[in-house]
Amino acid sequence: VKQARLANSTERSGAAASVEVRGWVRTRRDSKGGFSFLEINDGSSLGNLQVVAPGELDNYASEVQKLTAGCSVVITGTLQESPAKGQATELHADAVRVLGWADPETYPLQKKRHSFEKLREWAHLRTRTNTLGAVMRVRDQISQSIHQFFHQHGFFYVHTPIVTASDCEGAGEMFRVTTLDLERLAKSGGPVDYSQDFFDKPTFLTVSGQLEAETYATSLGRVYTFGPTFRAENSNTSRHLAEFWMVEPEAAFFDLADNMKLAEDFLKRVFSDVLQKCGEDMEFFDQRIEKGKIAQVESVIEKPFQHMTYTRAIEVLESCGESFDFPIRWGSDLQAEHERYLTETHVGGPLILTDYPASIKPFYMRLSDDQKTVAAMDVLVPGVGEIIGGSQREERLEVLQTRMAAQSLDPQEYWWYIDLRRFGTVPHSGFGLGLERAVQYVTGMANIRDVVPFPRTPGSAEF
Ligand code: 4AD
Ligand code: MG
Asked: What is the E.C. number (predicted)?
């Protein structure tokens, strides 16, 4: 049982090797010798357990021989050494109980391989496939490591709100939350009166818990928030979701250098946990999804991350001779193609880009002495591009107020945020890691829709 890593299975008392396994049938093969082989998977690992079901079973003809992919079963029997290649043990059944049938005419996950795109249509069943099962186990491990890393470094987990009135990123990509009957209002043609709305004002799904996390960092010292965030950005790309999970640490008395170090230590710890604890799943990704993935992740863990300023990155991009779809010059935002050139071709590993122009970054980033750039940092990794975005925050009251005015933000909406600079302000920093991008990076999965249980993207919110 250990060998097959069937965590749901229990060893029964009495005869040492008598076990009960519960799971789903992957395949059945009837042997000429009057018995059948069943491959059972219980979701705890990639490994299937081979079951030998003898013809003597009471329900052999009536049930066992009718089992097909997807049926759920409880099997008791004894573990024995397997003569077959590729497995150490097999289970010799003395009872096979069928819990649920799966009509082979309509069960979509037949033996034939389906594309990931096709599997998205069955997001409620696709985790029963090898790849999606492995992805979700890795996703779980990353989530666990996130909590462990921050707790071990003295960060408290805070729960920031999902419904908010402020647009942290200032990009206007927020989903509105309302109880108003907008349809009726639109028909009547009148202006929308938000004093009639549930919260008496316009509210939205959060794009980031950062601003609220900052309030906690300036009281508890080191905190992180980890939860779902929402962006109504109309980008149908392989790395954007409308609903994704973000972990956002925020630390008082941290400057940009501390922040960069934290991000690097954090990523390395998460990646090495995945290699250690999800070895079998990572072997699978290494062989089936992206060749050489394990060696790549190992080298990321071993080598220090490279650093480069935005200004230097623009010089590199301008002189590299590559033809990009989007022209690049100082002051423009980097597109995915630029980020990938820098991290994949120029550096060949993770790259921390710093000191972006103030004009392309949100109001809360700390303005540098040159008055043109801010203390921002993005972590880029091969295959994905930006995986982390963060900064040192503007802790000076007047500078913050000037920057908010320049970005036409209403100070009354952010009065509580501004208060932090009025009462015992301190330098502080933080960043946000997109959980799905981290999962994409370690697994090598090409599309972000395949590393989140139920993807929400423009025009698609099935399930
Ligand atoms: O760079 P972003 O927008 O930064 C923030 O939201 C800051 N408030 C974070 C902070 O400093 N506390 O987003 C952070 C990360 C990105 O680097 C990316 O990994 C992920 O969140 N991300 C997305 N992931 C999936 N789909 C999207 N639409 C994403 N937008 C951002
Ligand atoms: Mg960003």
From this structure: 6.1.1.22
Sign of the CA dihedral with 350 first, then 355, 361, and 367 last:
positive
CB neighbour list of residue 59: distance below 8 Å, 6 or more residues apart: 96, 98
Residue 12 has pLDDT above 60, yes or no: no
Residue 434 CB less than 6 A away from ligand 1: yes
Check if 214 has its Cβ closer than 6 Å to any atom of ligand 1: no
The secondary structure of 419-433 as a DSSP string is HHHHSS---EEEEEE
d(C-alpha 384, C-alpha 363), whole Å: 26
Cβ-count burial of 346 within 10 angstroms (0-12 exposed, 13-18 middle, 19+ buried)? middle
Q: Which atom of ligand 1 lies closest to the CA of 235?
A: 28
User: From residue 442, how far is each of 114, 137, 268, 417 by CA, in Å?
Assistant: 22, 12, 11, 36
From CA 462, how far away is CA 313, in angstroms rounded? 40
C-alpha distances (whole Å) from 169 to each of 107, 233, 356 are 44, 12, 15
387 lines ligand 1 (CB under 6 A): yes
Q: Which of 455, 288, 300, 454 is closest to 387 using CA atoms?
A: 300
DSSP designation for 64: G
Helices 256-277 and 130-152: angle between axes, nearest 10 degrees: 140
Each residue's pLDDT tens digit, 20-76: 999 999 999 999 999 999 999 999 999 999 999 999 999 999 999 999 999 999 999
Return the best residue to mutate from 158, 246, 343, 429 for the ligand 1 pocket (most ligand atoms within 8 A of CB).
246
- Name the token pair of 187: 């028909």
ipTM over 0.95: yes
Is the shortest distance between the CB of 431 and ligand 1 below 6 Å?
A: yes
Smallest CA-to-CA distance from 302 within 261, 340, 272, 279 is with 272
pTM of the model: 0.94
Query: Which phi and psi (to 5°) does residue 125 adopt?
Result: -120, -15
Helix (H) or strand (E) holding 227: strand 222-230
Closest residue to atom 22 of ligand 1, CA basis:
434
Please report the domains of the chain, with CATH numbers, ordered by start residue.
10-100 (2.40.50.140), 126-450 (3.30.930.10)
- Distance, in Å, from the CA atom of 431 to the CA atom of 301, rounded to the nearest integer, reads 20
